[in-house]
Amino acid sequence: MTLRGTLEIGDGYRAKNSELGGDGPIFMRAGRLTQNGWDWDGAERFHAELTAKVKPKMAKPGDTVITTKGNSTGRTGYVPKDSPDFVYSPHLSYWRSTNPDEIDSRYLRYWALSSEFHSQLKAMAHGTDMAPYLSLSDQKRIEITLPAIEQQRDISDILGALDDKIATNERIVTTTQLLIQARYLQAINKESNPKPLGDLVEFHNRKRVPLSSRQRAEIPGPYPYYGAAGVVDYIRDFIFSGPHLLVGEDGSVITAERKPVTQYVWGDFWVNNHAHVLTGREISTELLTVALQFTDVAALVTGAVQPKLNMRNLMRLEVPLPTEKQTATLDKEFCEATALIRRRSDESRTLADLRDTLLPQLMSGKLRVRDAEKIVEDAV
């Protein structure tokens, strides 16, 4: 396909430090292609006058993207229509359909998630002295099973409907979060009253139970196991239920903006001893979550090598709050808005699970397109 010009495979631009730091196209490093998609926050940008120079290595909507070096080799992504302008780094490769009558670009993206691709990837990815690596020549040797274009489009439409709904939910979640934050800032800018965190919350740290990787491997399951900055694993049991706020205690405890590392979590879950577990007492957990996103914690972090935010220091943290009357109003508003966030997020997880279940069955032909369409119609 590459020889016929049906499929274009390329890699990224090797940027110099002097070319970055402007307000032009984003320079997308491989580490910013995560399991959850693209991470745009704080990404470096080229100087605007370099746009023409880097344009040949710029992403196009419909590209399938693959990481080609390091432990994440073979992680894939997709460039949606609403993506901002960005340039690939050298450790990202793109696959681009140049003939939509032979290769549907979205089908290609889903095929890159299939076992057929990953079995070949495992056989091809070889190590350098430093890390695994997948060359352009290796990628061009990969073989793809292509059904008729009509079937490709049917499969991409089915799976795409699920991803489109997930994307809609993500936009609603992001917009709601931004509105909540703006409402909080508006309130405290009028009048604020700092209070020690210890007067506002209940700590549940005594219920935490750390598990080693070996222990977790023995009890795989559906419940998230949280660390200081995110989900570390999934296990078959839980020790907490319902909305809680996690605040990093060891390691990842402070952001580049000097704010605490926080996670608003709900459902059933487990937490290790690297994150404080809090719920609101005088204020809702939801209002507390927003307030900590704007509270400077740098003066309370200790440890030069391993940053730490211990419970005693965290309790001393002065949290800016609006007047008592406004706090009551915000509590109600934020609880309602966050309930919407939870519903949309839970729905997205369910839809993602369904997509991941349907994908291998559709790719292998074990599930008929007509039957899959009915399943998706009922889901969305």
Automatic annotation (TrEMBL):
Gene3D superfamilies: DNA methylase specificity domains. Its EC number is 3.1.21.-. It holds the Pfam family Methylase_S. GO terms for molecular function: endonuclease activity; hydrolase activity. It is an enzyme of class 3 (hydrolase). Residues 36-172, 190-327 form the Type I restriction modification DNA specificity domain. Transmembrane segments: none annotated. It comes from the Bacteria. InterPro entries: Restrct_endonuc_typeI_TRD, Restrct_endonuc_typeI_TRD_sf, Type-I_RS_S_subunit. Keywords: DNA-binding, Endonuclease, Hydrolase, Nuclease, Restriction system. SUPFAM superfamilies: DNA methylase specificity domain. Belongs to the type-I restriction system S methylase family. This is Restriction endonuclease subunit S.
